[in-house]
Amino acid sequence: MPKDLDPIETSEWLDAISSVIEEEGIERASFIMTKLAKKLNEEGAIPSYNLTTPFRNSIPVKDQASMPGDLFMERRIRSLIRWNALAIVLRANKNDDDLGGHISTFSSAATLYDIGFNYFFRGSNGQLEDLIYYQGHCSPGIYARSFLEGYLSEEDLDNFRREVEKPGLSSYPHPWLMPEYWQFPTVSMGLGPILGIYQAHIMRYMSARGLVPRDDRKVWVFCGDGEMDEPESKGAIALAGREQLENLIFVINCNLQRLDGPVRGNGSIIQELEGSFRGAGWNVIKVVWGRHWDPIMAKDKEGKLQDIMDAVLDGELQNFKSKGGAYTRENFFAKDPDVLEIVKDLTDEHIYKLNRGGHDPYKVYAAYHKAVNSKGAPTVILALTSKGYGIGSREADNTTHQVKKLSLDNIKAFRDKFNIPVTDDDIENIPYVRPADDSPEIQYLKKTRDSLGGPIPRRRNISEILSLPDDKSFSKLYEGTDERKISTTMATVRIITDLLKDKEIGKRIVPIVPDEARTFGMEALFRQVGIYSSAGQNYEPEDADKVMWYKESKDGVMLEEGITEAGAFSAWSALATAYSTYDFPMIPFYLFYSMFGFQRIHDLAWAAGDAQAKGFLIGATSGRTTLNGEGLQHQDGHSHVLSSTIPNCLSYDPAFAYEVAVIIKDGIKKMYVDQENYFYYITTTNENYEHPKMIEGSEEAIIKGMHKIESSKNPAVRLIGSGAILRESIKAKDILKNYNIDSEVWSVTSFNLLRKDGMEVERFNQLNPDLDEKLSYVEQCFDRKSIPVVASTDYMRSYAEQIRPYINSSYAVLGTDGFGRSDSREMLRGFFEINANNIVRASAYSLFKEGVIDKVQLDKIYLDMGVDPSKPNPWEA
Ligand SMILES: Cc1ncc(C[n+]2csc(CCOP(=O)(O)OP(=O)(O)O)c2C)c(N)n1
Ligand SMILES: [Mg+2]
Questions:
Q1: What secondary structure letter does DSSP report for 772?
Q2: Which residue of 84, 258, 364, 622 lies most exposed, with the fewest beta carbons within 10 A?
Q3: β-strands 509-513, 552-553 pairing
């Protein structure tokens, strides 16, 4: 704030606005101020006060909704939750197992959760529950509440972070490990915020389409102030503002610290976030000071205390909690002698106890009350708290994040602060404390949750079983395309288009794109099903006179999320878990440039695996040489390697339209009819070619990962390939024929699945030496004859390498290791040595090594194939 050059003039202005407020109300005053700001702006000034307000509570005391419950009872309950949360972590770390856990995060957030649980979070008994993204490091606090509520036992708590032998409590929220408890995986910082925003977006989408009404259901996202530095945390806040997601509430626990130290030692994270969120169109509710400050602030007639508050740095605020009342008096209030005077009657102890807003149930209640009742915009609550609240000398120290063990003195200080009924004799055991079922505390706790619809967290682990769609959507593609040339991307879009019209499941199909529909030939869907827009379409689209015009509508089906792979993926994730969160299975198809898939958003995909997502990811325009003109940053030759790292992701690289159809049909069956816990990644390409008819009866083999497409009575070599490159293997077969070398060709729809099958069989045989040895699927296909195998794909070699252990003959693998580049497909396939000539070269070499052909024949083939030993190696070029 610049220096006040004329305080008398300033006060005249202030008096003037005060009298408007008094006589005509706050709205009129705001109107005048807006007019004045406009005037100023005309002169070139950019008013700064639009985005941030003074460092104080946004809700004035007179406007605070009052908390209806029993403050003292709730404090007793909260204290027990605090104690048990601490006990969970301390007990887990009493031995040498290094189990870890966190104390200080929850201790700063306990009131923020408690007010939610006591008054706002709705449960799942007979209704759709609120969707809550808990801050991952608060998990002990959430378990501690479930323990008091009677849903977890002492034994469960003692199994915190022990999940190998017993179904213990997962370290953080992990639906995979606690499928009936946690709904969302959140601990990887930043994922909760972006997933939560898109969850609220999808909640409105589902409602707008008349699928699942949203009524006053909310999405709550709890996150850390340090966590807000993740690009994902703030990356989608503009969408929430623009879409007016009034069903979304962010609660940011501003304890001013992250893991290593202060979040903004030299500034104010609350003010910074206020500006960002307000700029994005959110309601911002700052909960800075607790009620003990109210009488002090009431005495600040000249705003001098406010000036000190406005200038205080987070680094200083941290010190005030770690160094106590006397320090605060000297370094905060004493900045102005008049302000020092205001607190002269307070002892140091009193000053220390001046509470922060986030620890004051009344203030937090008022904020939540306002948030849940706000219309037309999302709300963010910025709550000032203290990290490690209540743990004695470890509160607000720079190392408090990692506290897992506490000195006896600290434990006693905690017990005393929160009046926990544990004696000195017993305290070293750190016993859990739970009053009897019929105690007033437990009765109160149960009553509050019953009135809100039952306990949470709870995850719906069962879902409606869907019927299979009409087979025609798929069987059309079994027939091949005759002479018509299409791409597998086009085939996929056809299937999606047909499925959208399906009587049984059509309404559940959601095509999602990140501004790439035209790339994938999906623009017909714009008009056919419409693009979802919460505002509808309030303008005439430029192409209104065209057949495929850009139609936005309130009940549009397609999600056109703009250029945000993380956002589009988060929307997919919300739909892919709708079977659980909405009790209404959805079948989302997210189509994206395969290069900007896993590589860009792998952590979200990993979280989707944890969340048990079900749906289809389509890596369109895939293949390092198949998407040819786009160059190094676009041409993907490794997404299958990346997708293979996610245990429940089934991935396929089909070559032909009928394979795509078989895979999608099977996917719908597995995920939505058989209720298996998978999601699908399918790469498709933009290369147009003719597609053959499906060989009858090959469905099962296609699904398993490999089927024979070209047979030979007496093959000398087996050529295997996938995606668009399979056609190079087919060409190679014809070339080899010229040298009297017979071959057979196999389409490998999934090297990843072949590897999984191989691992399973290998393990089974090792564990069961007394039983008959099983053969892996690859071994079954390639009987034990020593026919060399040559693989070629549009992916790096490690993709096809995976099946080497299950091949009993020689195995040569070609692939696209190295950076991509732009050129014609033909040139690129030569460059990466995956084309027919190179497949012939590799085959000839294998046959030469096996003694099937001699050196003369080899030299001839090499000469014909143009093999050049001096050609630079493509992965270093
Ligand atoms: C993506 C990611 N990076 C790093 C971490 C490790 N980590 C866990 S907690 C933490 C600090 C969290 O600080 P803040 O968000 O302020 O939460 P607080 O504990 O202070 O409430 C870090 C860096 C993580 N969990 N996720
Ligand atoms: Mg923090």
A1: P
A2: 258
A3: unpaired
With CA atoms as reference, report the closest residue to 58 among 318, 245, 283.
283
Mean pLDDT, rounded, for 401-424: 92
For residue 20, report the distance from its CA to the centre of ligand 1, in Å: 46
Three-class SS state of 251: strand
Rounded distance between C-alpha atoms, residue 266 and residue 313, angstroms: 6
User: In ligand 1, which atom is closest to the CA atom of 259?
Assistant: 11
Structure tokens at 770: 């007394």
> Which residue's CA is minimally distant from atom 23 of ligand 1?
259
Residues in the chain: 877
In this structure, the residue with its CA closest to atom 7 of ligand 1 is 259
Mean pLDDT on 762-782: 97
Q: Which two tokens stand for residue 471?
A: 């087979």
**pLDDT at residue 263 greater than cutoff 90:** yes
- The token pair at 89 is 């972590």
Reference 280, options 250, 255, 320, 244; nearest CA is: 244
Query: 3-class DSSP state for residue 707?
Result: strand
Q: What is the pLDDT of residues 354-395, one digit of tens each?
A: 999 999 999 999 999 999 999 999 999 999 999 999 888 889
Q: What is the DSSP letter of 725?
A: G
* Nearest atom (ligand 1) to Cα of 188: 26
Paired residues of 681 in beta bridges: 617, 651
Measured in angstroms, how far is the CA atom of residue 832 from the centroid of ligand 2? 49
Distance CA 503, CA 699 (A): 24
What is the rounded CA–CA span in Å between residue 199 and residue 215? 15
Q: Indicate which ligand has the atom closest to the C-alpha of 256.
A: 2
Question: Looking at this protein, which amino acid is placed at residue 552?
Answer: E
Query: Comparing C-alpha atoms, which of 605, 587, 567 is closest to residue 198?
Result: 567
What is the per-residue pLDDT across 160-213, written as a single tens digit (0 to 9) for each?
999 998 889 999 999 999 999 999 999 999 999 999 999 999 999 999 999 999
Distance (angstroms) between ligand 1 centre and the Cα of 209 equals 37
- Of the candidates 638, 598, 625, 683, the one whose C-alpha atom is nearest the C-alpha of residue 821 is 625
Calpha distance 434→392 (Å, rounded):
23
Query: Residues with Cβ within 6 A of ligand 1?
Result: 105, 108, 137, 187-189, 224-227, 253, 255, 257-259, 263, 387, 401
Q: Which residue has the tokens 């004695």?
A: 392
Could you give the CA distance from residue 349 to residue 326 in angstroms, rounded to a whole number?
8
CA-CA distance, 822 to 729, in Å (whole number)? 23
C-alpha 472 – ligand 2 centre gap (Å): 55
Q: What is the pLDDT of residue 378?
A: 98
Q: Are 776 and 758 contacting, i.e. CB atoms less than 8 angstroms apart?
A: yes
Q: Distances from the Cα of 7 to the Cαs of 11, 45, 302, 750, in angstroms? A: 6, 21, 11, 76
Cα 634 to Cα 643: distance, rounded to the nearest angstrom? 17
Residue 128: count of CB within 10 angstroms of its CB: 19
The edge-to-edge listing of strands for the beta sheet with 743-748 is 706-710, 743-748, 717-721, 789-792, 811-814
Eight-state DSSP code of residue 538: -
pLDDT-wise least confident of 237-241, 277-281, 391-395, 531-535: 391-395
Residue appearing with tokens 């509430």? 249
**Index of the ligand 1 atom closest to the CA of residue 255:** 20
Indicate if the pLDDT at residue 404 is higher than 90: no
Q: Name the phi and psi angles at 451, rounded to 5.
A: -70, -20
Relative to the alpha carbon of 192, which ligand is closest? Answer: 1
CA 90/CA 106 separation, integer angstroms? 14
- pLDDT for 41: 80
Q: Ligand 2 centroid vs 136 CA: distance in angstroms?
A: 12
Please write the tens of the pLDDT for every residue from 662-682. Answer: 999 999 999 999 999 999 999
